[in-house]
Structure formats: C-alpha cells, structure tokens
From TrEMBL:
It comes from Lacticaseibacillus baoqingensis. Keywords: Glycosidase, Hydrolase. GO terms for molecular function: 6-phospho-beta-glucosidase activity. Belongs to the glycosyl hydrolase 1 family. This is 6-phospho-beta-glucosidase. Its EC number is 3.2.1.86. PROSITE patterns: GLYCOSYL_HYDROL_F1_2. Transmembrane segments: none annotated.
Length: 478
C-alpha cells in the first residue's frame, strides 16, 4: 500500500465508459444507426474502417458492446459496491434522434436514460454525461457531411436542448464533445470522422477541412454551454480534451520550440472553449497556408459567450517531438512530428507510460485556461487472463496508483482545482480505436471475446478491491 494524499471533501471518485462502447442493443428502442455502428473492428494497430451501412459479413463490435443496455442495473450495483460517487457515460445521440434531424425526439430512448440515471441516483452516484462521444447519427454524416454543415450545428443543439431539459434535475455535470482535439491528427480519417463526422474528399486539403469542421463543432459546443445555463444555471458544462503532453526530445532550443508549437496546435480547441477566442498564431497560420476558414461575427460572439465551466480531459500517455531541418517553419503534423520518447516504458499497445505527464498536463492546462479540471479518462489497456476465477491485474493497479499519486500531488502541492477522477474504464468495454474486447481497461472483467462470444459474466479484478480502498480513504490509501 502506498500513502497518497486526501482529496478535497466531495471529490468525485468514479469510473467512465461511453454509450457506443458498452450499451450494445444497437437497434433497440427505436435507436438509429450511428457512425460507431458502421465501424468494423481492425487489427491491434489499425484504426477501424467505415462502411456506408453495416454489411452482413463484417464484424461490428459496437452492435453488442457489453450489453449494458440490459445489464446496467447490475453493473451500477457493482460500481456502488466499489464506492463510486459518480459515473461517466454518454447519451447515444441516435437513441434520442435516430437520424439526427427528426422533428421530435424518440421517447423510448429518453426513457432508457431516465431509468439509467435513476439507477445511479438510487446509490447516490452522480451521472457525468458526455453529449457526443464518437457516436454521431450516420445520416448527418451521409446527408450533411457532419460538421461541414451548419445544419448539423442546429441538429446538435436540438439534441443538447432535449437532454438538458429532460435530465437537468438528475445530471449536473455535462461535457459537449469527447476529445474534440483528436482531430488534430487530421491525416488519419478515423479521428476526423469520430469528432466532426468529416469524411475526406480526395480533392480537398484535409487540414483545411478539419479546421473548418472543427470551427462549427466549437460553435456548437459554445452554443450548447450557453443553452444549458439558460435552462438551468446550476448546470456545469465542460470541454473534453485528450491531453497527451508533447515533450521536446532534447534541450536543444529548436526542439523546445517545436514542442511549444506542438502543444499549441494540439490544444487550441481548449483555448477556444475555455477562453472564448482563437489564438492569434492560428489565424496567421491559416493565412500562411492560404486556408479560408469561415468565422462569422455571430460565431465569434457565440464562442465568447459560451466558454466552459470546467475542462474534462483524458490522459493515457505523453509523446515527444524534435525539430527537423525539412520543417523550418516548425509546422506541427502529428503523423510526421512525433518521435518515440526513449525515457518511458510502453504498454502492449505501444502507449507510453508516464505518470508524471499527468501532473505536467494538469499544470499546463491550469496555467493556460484557469478552469477547474476533471480527469474523466485515465487507464491501462492490457491482456487480462482469468486464473481460477481471479484476474490479478497488478499491472493496472500499478499504472492507476502511479497516476493517481501524481494527480494528488497536482492538487495538494500545486494547488490545482480538480473536480473528480473517473478512470477508463469502470468495466471492460469495446476498444474505441481497434474494436477489440481483448484490450481490457475495466476494474470489472466481462467474459466476452472480440466476436462477442462468452457468458457475459462479470468478475471483480484485483483492481476492484484496490480501488474500493482508494475511494474509501478519499485517495489516501493507494
Ligand atoms: C479515448 C476515448 C475512449 C477510449 C480510450 C481508450 O480516445 O475517449 O472512448 O476508447 O480512448 O482508447 P482505446 O479504446 O482505443 O484503447
């Protein structure tokens, strides 16, 4: 046992999942087809392909998830046994608006989340809800091109309004778009589709297309924040940023400048959501590249008026970058600018393991955005094995212990305001980037393989009892 620090009273210890990765029941209760439903599983290091519609022979793991749509009461009971104060999930947009553009919402879908949030409340567990977690209605992609179109801004705001009005008495903490900044990896079509519903056209500049679509998504996010505060001023609406600090590979001044460029590029989304305006460097970057990004006066006003109440973020790992003579302008391009960091170990999926990076990222965001933070994802994907009904995931306990300790130092020693911690994931789920079940993150094991076969039985991993003690001691017993 490692001695940690007590977190402030009321600290929200919990766990996180996302609707499309757990619920399954992909056509139940009037639900429509989302982009998550047409993404086929890929190999360990290949992002998933997207089909125009599900085809008979392909494997679509989000069709079954872990059947949370039917098992949520029993799963939430297990979360309560661990001592959860909160539980993060998302509302599947297509359960509420199956195609995204209906005049009226789907009552069956609304009722499902009434029941889910009531089940949380029964145990005193606070729901933390992401409005869009990589699960945009497919129709809005195929008919309108996702956030290429201002029609999708309107569709998202209609969805947000229905959710805020329906659930504002049971859900106080919201986030608009999951990992909105992941589209900074614009050379990979997967993050563009997941975040903005953007499918690239060969004839266009994909970076310019990303900036324009991201702009409309940022406008949608800001307008949703303002709408929430109109409906219920007690609502707290956060950004959700994928925080992956990018270090200079050396102390060479040009490496340091390259890392500064990398960070400002990867996190300008947070600048807009927390500060309400675009950074000056980005407008000069667009001009230098000849990008014509349409920002109306009304957009600028919406961004200024719709700044977030807090910054939710995910943290898994850090990266590194170095200056290159063939890039004298220090233009950051994730696919080309990131280099391995030789000073940190890696997971089975090659993700760098760097607990100090969590404390670094928390300090960086606080100094830049001056908002309360919320760690809404942090976890270790691994191959877990069942031995005599037990799962000895000491590697996951070690990862979480090391990261929580750095998080607690950021709060107690650095004075950072932190609302809570919801590790990824409360329970084994379908991997977002690969569609695999074998990449397990959960504190609870689910007996199911990559093809959805298995009993679905839930088993408590060793990390279950460990995390139970962390929560019971409010972070002191690690
Ligand atoms: C983040 C997503 C989560 C989760 C996590 C782990 O990007 O917000 O949905 O999936 O990544 O990634 P993966 O499942 O690909 O290992």
């Amino acid at each position: 046992m490692t001695k940690g620090y007590q977190m402030p009273a009321g600290f929200l210890w919990g766990g996180a999942v996302a609707a499309h990765q757990v619920e399954g029941a992909w056509q139940a209760g009037g639900k429509g087809v989302s982009i998550a439903d047409v993404m086929r599983a890929g190999a360990k290091d290949v992002t998933r392909q997207v089909d125009a519609q599900p085809t008979g022979d392909a494997v679509y793991p989000n069709h079954w998830g872990i059947d949370f749509f039917h098992t949520y009461r029993d799963d939430i009971k297990l979360f309560a046994e661990m001592g959860f104060k909160c539980f993060r999930t998302s509302i599947a947009w297509t359960r509420i608006f199956p195609n995204g553009d209906e005049a009226l919402p789907n009552e069956e879908g609304l009722k499902f989340y009434d029941d889910l949030f009531a089940a949380c409340q029964q145990y005193g567990i606070e729901p933390i809800v992401t409005l869009s977690h990589f699960e945009m209605p497919l129709h809005l992609v195929t008919a309108d091109g996702g956030f290429r179109s201002r029609k999708v801004v309107a569709a998202f705001l209609k969805f947000a309004q229905v959710c805020f009005e329906r659930y504002h008495d049971t859900v106080k903490y919201w986030m608009t778009f999951n990992e909105i900044n992941n589209q900074a990896m614009w050379r990979d079509p997967h993050p563009l589709l997941q975040n903005s519903g953007l499918q690239l056209d060969d004839s266009e500049n994909s970076e310019e297309a990303m900036f324009q679509a991201a702009h409309l998504e940022l406008v949608a996010s800001a307008k949703a924040v303002s709408l929430a505060h109109l409906i219920d001023p007690t609502l707290q609406v956060g950004a959700m940023i994928a925080m992956t600090p990018i270090y200079p590979l050396s102390a060479k001044p040009k490496d340091v400048l390259m890392a500064e460029r990398a960070m400002r590029y990867r996190y300008y989304y947070g600048d807009v959501q927390a500060l309400g305006t675009y950074p000056a460097w980005l407008k000069r970057y667009w001009a230098r590249k000849g990008y014509a990004i349409e920002i109306t006066a009304a957009d600028a006003t919406a961004l200024k008026n719709g700044t977030v109440d807090y910054v939710g973020f995910s943290y898994y790992n850090s990266l590194a970058t170095e200056y290159s003579a063939d890039n004298p302008d220090y233009d950051y391009d994730e696919a080309r600018s990131v280099v391995p960091n030789p000073y940190v170990p890696r997971s089975d999926w090659g993700w760098q393991i760097d607990p100090v990076g969590l404390r670094y990222g928390m300090n960086w965001m606080t100094a830049r955005w001056h908002k309360p933070l919320f760690v809404v994802e942090n976890g270790y994907g691994a191959y877990d094995t069942v031995v005599d009904g037990q799962i000895h995931d000491d590697y996951r306990i070690a990862y979480l212990r090391d990261h929580i300790l750095e998080m607690e130092k950021a709060v107690v020693e650095d004075g950072i305001e932190l609302l809570g911690y919801t590790p990824w994931s409360a329970i084994d789920i379908i991997s977002a980037s690969t569609g695999e079940m074998k990449k397990r993150y959960g504190l609870i094991y689910v007996d199911q393989d990559d093809q959805g076969r298995g009993s679905g039985k839930r088993l408590k991993k060793d990390s279950f009892a460990w995390y139970q003690r962390v929560i019971a001691s409010n972070g002191e017993q690690l």
